[in-house]
Design a protein that fits this description.
Elements: H1 6-10, H2 23-69
Length: 81
């Protein structure tokens, strides 16, 4: 704040000064930013979970396909249930 005395630059406006401002607009902006942050964290969590589940599904598919190639002890089935 160039050109203002230090006391005026540090002075906090009071309601009696007529500087009421638009508190409702600021509150709604803060609420919107908080909701946006929560939504971003939730979507990141869902995306990360789906990504990990895809890698697990790929690993299970590889093991399942390997079971058709590597058969134990001459049996026709590689599973025992």
């Amino acid at each position: 704040m160039v050109g203002q005395p230090r006391e005026e630059a540090l002075r906090v406006p009071h309601l009696s000064d007529g500087a009421t401002g638009n508190c409702e607009g600021k509150v709604s902006l803060v609420v919107a930013l908080i909701l946006l942050a929560v939504l971003a964290v939730a979507l990141f969590g869902v995306g990360f979970t789906i990504h990990v589940l895809w890698w697990i599904a790929i690993a299970v598919a590889i093991v399942w396909l390997a079971g058709f190639v590597v058969r134990p002890g001459g049996g026709h089935r590689w599973y025992y249930w």
